[in-house]
Amino acid sequence: MLTVLVNVALAQDPGTIPWTPKATGGLVPCVVSVPAMYRSINIDSVRQRLMLPLGWTANVFVAGPELAKPRFMAWGPDSVLFVANMSKNNVVAMPDRNRDGVADTVIVAARGFSTGHDVRFWRDTMFVAQEASIVKLWRSNPNGYIYDQRVTVIDKASQANQIGGGHRTRTLVVDTNTMKLYVSVGSRGNADREVNRAVIEEYDYDGSNRRVYASGVRNAVGMTLHPRTGKLWANNNGSDNQGNNIPPEWVDIIREDGFYGYPFAYHFRRFFSLTGEYSDLLPITRNDTLLLQRMQPPAALVDAHCAPMALVFVEQTPITEFRHSAFMAMRGSWNRTPPSGSKIVRFEFDSDEDTIANAVHDFCTGFISDTNDASTRWARPVGLALASDGSVYVSSDDIKNMIIKLTPPKTVSVREDGAAPSPGLSPNPASSRVRVHGARAGDLVAIVDVHGRVVDEQLASTDEPTLVIATLSQGVYLVRVMRDATVVSTEQLVVSR
């Protein structure tokens, strides 16, 4: 995989630190496979392709009328995936009993929510975060999917200034090490002096003893615990109308009594230009200056207005390079030209204890067909769920309501001569010709290089066609077989002379 690091460094003024280096390149086009039962989703196999690391595949896991604004996801008992279905006011379970990468059915597991955005589990207990409350649910039938018993553990509607305004989602973290609950409460407005908003709250497990754990956090939609250090992390959706690149969005550890800048500061101890609508924040007080000095350098700074959503650290994975990583969904900007976000990124760290990201890697792009034209956006990634086999599940809550599964290349055995063969190609490595096993007459067979360029494409005239590759340069390629506009196989090919 080819990777290019782009360091977007800012001038070294007081209160300025470099943005996190961007790692780009190495992604190749991937057609999203759509099972027959979900063909109504109408994904254009030419214009609506994803860009993924070499060898990864994508397929629709769930789509259809049962989903309406699917937001955050979580693994429940028996490794069943659940999603908060915001516009249907419910939570649905999506079992995949035969493990074929497609949900067998969609089951309404719980209902009766308003702006239900987040679902979490601890053992057999489900938590749902909605604007007005945090609800704990359990099952009358422990062998079923229906969570029909509930109690409200945090009644936010009874708390001052908690309901209404521009940011109505509530994200929840259940810390079972300390038996604490953490709730993010976004700001009511764009940039205003507010009380009991733009904070992250801490509660005891039973919902008692509320306190503000961190402040100046405009809207931490993504919030999570590191699976090994137990530290609380979050991202932030920054304020608008300060230009294309101000403020950069941040990802950071959430420190007890930490201050993160809202409403008057951003980046690292920098005041906004307090003009226009921001002039309402004047005058800057001594307390404001003291708060500014409490700001710490964030773990990562990424594109402004990219709308960070789910943030998930990797817990288990067979992919070595991902083991000290976090994935983040970016829903995409509404007020930036050209638009930012509309992708999944991966933050690279040196170790579990590392608190400054080395780089932010594009992991899955293509949700917007033309990155200069917001009207070509065809999905908006929001929720993420990681599986132990390395698969990544992504929910889209707008334009196309669906969940896509991204699957890594299968692990293959190593031959005695040290080469890693691909079971669908022979020989492999190859020098002049390669046979594509499993392809049928009429299939579209393409060879793609590491930059995502199609270097050869042809309709197979016979079953298991042989490709002439004598003119290809040495290196790694991808051989993709499509049948009826659906990818049926993707294999890595090593060309060696």
Keywords:
mainly beta; 2% helix; Immunoglobulin-like; disordered N terminus; six-stranded mixed sheet; globular; Neuraminidase; 39 strands; 497 residues; five-stranded mixed sheet; 2 domains
Largest sheet: 6 strands, mixed
CATH architecture of the largest domain: 6 Propeller
Give the C-alpha Rg.
Answer: 24 Å
Spans of at least 5 consecutive residues whose pLDDT stays below 50 are: 1-13, 412-422
Highest CATH level, the class of the largest domain = Mainly Beta
- The domain tally reads 2
> SS-based structural class?
mainly beta
- CATH H-tier superfamily of the largest domain: TolB, C-terminal domain
Mean pLDDT level: 91
Number of E-type strands: 39
Q: Which word captures the global form?
A: globular
Residue share in β-strands: 35-45%
Q: Treating each run of at least 4 consecutive H or I residues as one helix, how many helices?
A: 1
Distance between the termini: 20 Å
* CATH topology-level name of the largest domain: Neuraminidase
Helicity range of the residues? under 10%
Strand order of the largest sheet: 1-2-29-28-27-26
Describe the structure.
The protein is mainly β and 497 residues long. The protein has 2 domains: 4-407, TolB, C-terminal domain (Neuraminidase); 425-495, Sandwich (Immunoglobulin-like), CATH 2.60.40. The protein is 2% helix and 39% strand. It has 1 helix and 39 strands. The chain has one helix at residues 286-293, and strands at 4-6, 22-24, 27-30, 32-33, 50-53, 57-63, 70-75, 81-85, 90-94, 107-111, 118-122, 125-130, 133-138, 149-155, 170-175, 180-185, 199-204, 211-215, 223-225, 232-235, 249-253, 258-259, 265-266, 270-271, 300-302, 308-313, 325-330, 343-348, 359-364, 381-386, 392-396, 402-407, 425-426, 433-436, 444-448, 454-459, 466-468, 475-483, 486-495. A 6-stranded mixed beta sheet has the order 1-2-29-28-27-26, with no helix packed on it. A 5-stranded mixed beta sheet has the order 4-6-32-31-30, with no helix packed on it. A hairpin with a 6-residue loop joins strand 17 and strand 18 (211-215). The protein is globular and about 75 Å long. Mean pLDDT is 91; it is low at 1-13 and 412-422.
